[in-house]
Structures are given as C-alpha cells and as structure tokens.
Amino acid sequence: MNVWAHVGDEIITPPLEGSILAGVTRDSVLQLLADWGLRAVERPLALDELLAAADRGALHEMFGCGTAAVISPIGELGIDDRRLVINGGAIGPLARRLYDEITGIQYATKPDPHHWMTRVA
C-alpha cells in the first residue's frame, strides 16, 4: 500500500525507490489527480513534516492506496508520544472522491476515459 498526504495545496506520496512499490492503483491515483488539476508531488515525506503541517492546520487528510484496499483513509497516526487525529478520524473529501471514481470505473457506473478496464469474454 502507498501512503498519501494532502498538505496545503499538494498531495504528496513518496517516490518509487527503496521499499515503495509501483502499482496500478498508485498510477491511477496520480492520473486522476492530474485529470482534476490537483498538484501531486512524488517526494519523501517525513513525520516531522506531517506534525508541523498538522500544527499549522495544513494537513487536510491522509490515505493509503493499493490493489485490495483501493483507497483507505488514515484517521490517526501515533508518533512517539503524540496522537495525531487526521480530519477528525473520518474519510476526507479527496479520498472519498478517488474511491468513488476508481470503484465507479471498476463497476462500469462511471466512464473509463483512460481505457483501464478490459472486457473478458
């Protein structure tokens, strides 16, 4: 599963190196964010940065993405002795929109503009 953080006007995910794996769902999220004109950034994301963003009110939401999970909100992080509740522990609007879009394409209830789906006879 890949992690994503919506901080300020950026949606950040770690780059594909080390233990971060490439994946179809990750690629789909990057494509949808670009389609929607949102700024996706692939760069390292440190816990200190997340804490600082939360302290200044700039950490809007976090979520994970992966094949089985599709989009899964992250409602809370435990960092050392601090408990960081994200978006009140609820799914954020971006995670909800991504989940709805990806599952809508999977179930053919939404258009598939990138031709991701293949009909199997």
Structure overview:
This protein is of the alpha+beta class. Helix content is 29%, strand content 28%. Strands 3-2-1-4-5 form a five-stranded mixed beta sheet. Strands 6-7 form a two-stranded antiparallel ribbon. The protein starts with a strand and ends in a 15-residue tail after the last helix.
Predict the CATH topology. Answer: D-amino Acid Aminotransferase, Chain A, domain 2
How many structurally independent domains? 1
Strand residue percentage: 25-35%
Question: Could you describe the largest sheet, including whether it forms a barrel?
Answer: 5 strands, mixed
* CATH homologous superfamily placement: D-amino Acid Aminotransferase, subunit A, domain 2
The largest beta-sheet arranges its strands as 3-2-1-4-5
Helix and strand topology:
Blueprint: E1 2-7, E2 10-13, H1 24-35, E3 39-42, H2 47-55, E4 59-66, E5 70-73, E6 76-79, E7 82-85, H3 93-106
Parallel strand pairs: 2-3
Antiparallel strand pairs: 1-2, 1-4, 4-5, 6-7
Key words describing this protein structure:
121 residues; alpha+beta; D-amino Acid Aminotransferase, Chain A, domain 2; five-stranded mixed beta sheet; two-stranded antiparallel ribbon; 3 helices; 28% strand
In short:
With 121 residues, the protein is α+β, with helices and mostly antiparallel strands. The protein has three helices and seven strands; from the N terminus they run ββαβαββββα. It starts with a strand and ends in a 15-residue tail after the last helix.
